[in-house]
Design goal:
Quinone Oxidoreductase, Chain A, domain 1, 349 residues, single chain, alpha/beta, 26% helix, 11 helices, Rossmann fold
Length: 349
């Protein structure tokens, strides 16, 4: 007999409702998972507000943590069994393009948030539904004792791990993170765990204080002081060895390049919205021997590293949990997630 479940269906801009849909059934080499938590990230907010183009009806949510409910035939029960907890990821990647085959799923040639995943009837990323059917390579095992709310940070932390691991930090003494939102703070936590001095540039006083509380060595107020001069003052005139831009602001992206030291690296972690261009002097790049890179998404290694670090307590995302709201109240959750002082709003199933 066909069973039903609940899912949050986005049917248009700012139009989302909990509806009953068919519960997926695991086939051969598939696993049925029950979602325990799913956070609402900036990408979800943009889809909800009509900024990101999605196909309606759409089921969003990709910062997922789940428990195995049922395993299909062909699954190694010694590896995956009912009751085990796992982060869920890489559902939007194809698994067979050149980049997926070399283990760089984050830059999948066919990456598509509008594909149908998890045995669902509608396109999307799938996390705003009670159940999904996935393959083992989409699961990243966690400790059974890990709190479900912390588990929802595996996906964003995996992206930050990818961002940081792209850069050779062997000679770096310090790093500057521009922006102290959720992703900026996760950069701070990870860079501190790696032993670097970390500076934060952030216009919001409350967020600057929060960053200090979580270990920032110095904070910069870019509104009331010149951030370029300040970072040079903090580094004997050199600039930061590594600069991570975790904001979507064009002028900040331009400024990031002025704040890096010779031989340093600038990483554009955040996309710029709205999309615009910046100018870079190739002669300056040549003489200063600066590297400029970007980072988006993550791969399977990053996911497993992220859930291991959270499970082992090496990175504790608890301070970033602004509120936990029942899944049925997803409209209230979206409202809360877009409040100026909010970090992460987590849906609890």
């Amino acid at each position: 007999m066909q069973m039903n479940m609940k899912a949050a269906i986005l049917s248009g801009t700012k139009k989302i409702n909990i509806e009953s849909i068919n519960k997926p059934v695991p086939g051969k080499n598939e696993i049925l998972i029950k979602l325990k938590t799913c956070a609402i990230c900036t990408w979800d907010q943009r889809a909800y507000n009509g900024i990101n183009n999605v196909l309606f009806p759409f089921i969003g949510g990709h910062e997922m943590f789940a428990e195995i409910e049922e395993v299909g035939s062909g699954i190694d029960r010694a590896q995956w069994d009912v009751g085990e907890k796992a982060a869920v990821g890489l559902l939007s990647m194809c698994g067979h393009c050149h980049y997926c085959e070399i283990g760089e799923e984050g830059i999948c040639s066919n990456h598509d948030y509008n594909k149908i995943v998890g045995g669902l009837p509608y396109p999307g990323t799938g996390g705003f539904s009670e159940y999904l059917v996935v393959e083992p390579h989409n699961l990243f095992k966690a400790s059974k004792t890990l709190k479900n709310e912390k588990g929802a940070f595996a996906e964003p932390l995996s992206c930050v791990i990818h961002s940081v691991n792209k850069i050779d930090l062997s000679k770096a003494q310090n790093a500057l993170v521009i922006g102290a939102g959720t992703m900026g703070i996760l950069h701070l936590l990870l860079l501190k765990a790696k032993g670097l001095s970390v500076f934060i540039s952030e216009p919001n006083e409350r967020r600057r204080s929060f960053a200090v509380k979580l270990g920032a060595d110095e904070v910069i107020d870019p509104v009331n002081e010149d951030p370029v001069r300040k970072i040079k003052d903090l580094t004997d005139g050199r600039g930061a060895d590594v600069v991570f831009n975790a904001t979507a602001v064009l002028d900040v992206a331009k400024q990031a390049i002025e704040m890096v030291a010779p031989l340093g690296t600038v990483s554009f972690y955040s996309s710029i919205y709205p999309k615009e261009l910046i100018e870079i002097d190739p002669n300056w790049l040549h003489k200063k021997m600066v590297s400029i890179t970007g980072s988006a998404n993550s791969n399977a290694r990053d996911f497993q590293n992220a859930i291991d670090m959270i499970s082992d307590g090496l990175v504790d995302p608890s301070p970033l949990i602004s509120n936990v709201i029942p899944f049925e109240n997803i409209r209230d959750a979206y409202t809360a997630s877009m409040m100026p002082d909010n970090y992460r709003t987590i849906l609890k199933f």
